[in-house]
Write a structure and sequence with these properties.
The protein is 21% helix and 19% strand. It is an alpha+beta fold. The protein is globular and about 65 Å long.
Length: 380
């Protein structure tokens, strides 16, 4: 096993560690000698595992860039990150939207300011190569756009709650909408608190879209809505404890990964969240169809829930389109291979053999995406 000191030395002197496989989850953030990935919290753990190396599928799996390590940077942590040797230090991109904005500023050279509090404006030209995104391009979609949203895996959007009342387990779309627009303040006679993920989160954007609410709505309802860090039921964004009888958007894939041990566990329990009497639970907005099946290390995605047209969602890795377009003067064969689903160790692979990235991704709760065709988008 490599020590943290050894990893740091490799990052400083540029020594390749491509022949060494590390177990997931791994959180070290070395300066990247190849490509730098930022953005979505939803995809953070699984992408970290793929690029750092994992044996979660029962075989050694690692996604390399022509034999060179790729750098994936967490959505949360220290305020500033440095992604490339001698590159600028800039505010950590937190969430899908923030990650795509960082990629856009890396391409157009305009100043970037992260959504992470305390981040300064910085010029980050050439510092970001890939953005993790739990949502598609939305209103930025453009068939001639400069960005390509390359399908990564199928996730589903559900909710987690800290309520002990079983009435919290099955809440339909109308009820969830009422809770988040503050017209419903109690479930089965128990007061309920709405917790929305932080600004810049793709999960936040997807959740509000499904509930037909605007991204700025929480500012207008401060007494009803609190802001959390996506997929975290231990604490809110300001560090205060996640409330009892609260409901928040939750990636089904993240819930699987946090329960199986593949990802970082941020599930609130009596031992890690002061005052919580029972562990946070996952609910379902579809009557009779749970988001996941099994429990603990045996938990897996429920394909029936993931395939639902309302709650299922594809996730993406976003890059400059020209760099993966064969024949384009900017074409980068190494980057294109890293995102080619036909390659067994590529980030977008959906294979089932233990030695493929696809098998490792399933352990993190991701199934094959509904399409492998990239979507085009304008810069954000």
């Amino acid at each position: 096993m490599i020590s943290k000191k050894a990893i740091a030395i490799c990052a400083i002197v540029g020594v390749s560690v491509s022949g060494i496989v590390m177990a997931a989850p791994a959180n070290a953030e070395p300066v990247s000698n190849s490509y730098a990935i930022v953005g979505s919290d939803t995809l953070q753990d699984v992408v970290n595992a793929a690029v750092n190396g994992t044996t979660v599928s029962g075989s050694n799996v690692r996604s390399l860039a022509n034999g060179t390590a790729v750098g994936s940077f967490d959505a949360t942590g220290g305020v500033l990150i440095q992604t490339k040797p001698a590159g600028a230090r800039f505010g950590r991109p937190n969430g899908s939207g923030d990650g795509v904005k960082a990629l856009s500023r890396s391409l157009d050279g305009a100043a970037y300011t992260s959504a992470t509090p305390g981040s300064p404006a910085a010029i980050i030209t050439g510092q970001v190569d890939i953005a993790r995104s739990s949502s598609g391009p939305g209103s930025s979609a453009n068939t001639n756009g400069l960005l390509a949203y390359v399908p990564f895996g199928r996730d589903a959007l559900t909710y987690a709650h800290s309520g002990t009342n079983t009435g919290f387990d099955n809440l339909d779309l109308a009820t969830l909408t009422g809770i988040f627009n503050c017209s419903i303040t109690a479930v089965n006679g128990v007061s309920v608190t709405a917790v929305i993920p932080q600004a810049g989160s793709g999960t936040r954007e997807s959740w509000l879209s499904k509930l037909s609410l605007t991204s700025a709505y929480s500012t207008a309802n401060p007494s009803c809505v609190k802001v959390g860090q996506e997929h975290d039921t231990i604490a809110l964004a300001d560090g205060s404890p996640f409330p009892d009888n609260a409901i928040t958007a939750m990636s089904a894939a993240q819930w699987v990964a946090q329960n199986t041990g593949a990802g970082i566990n941020r599930i609130g329990t009596a031992t890690n969240r002061v005052g919580m009497l029972n562990p946070a639970k996952v609910g379902t907005p579809i009557a009779g169809t749970n988001a996941v099946t099994g429990a603990g290390a045996a938990m897996t995605p429920n394909s029936a829930f993931y395939s639902n047209a309302t709650w299922g969602r594809d996730t993406y890795l976003v890059v400059e389109y020209a760099r993966i377009e064969a024949g384009n003067p900017k074409f980068d064969a190494t980057l294109a291979n890293l995102l080619d689903p036909s390659k067994a160790s590529s980030l977008t692979n959906t294979g089932t053999f233990a030695s493929t990235t696809g098998a490792a991704k399933k352990k993190f709760g991701f199934l094959a995406p509904s399409s492998t065709t990239p979507l085009r988008s304008n810069l954000r």
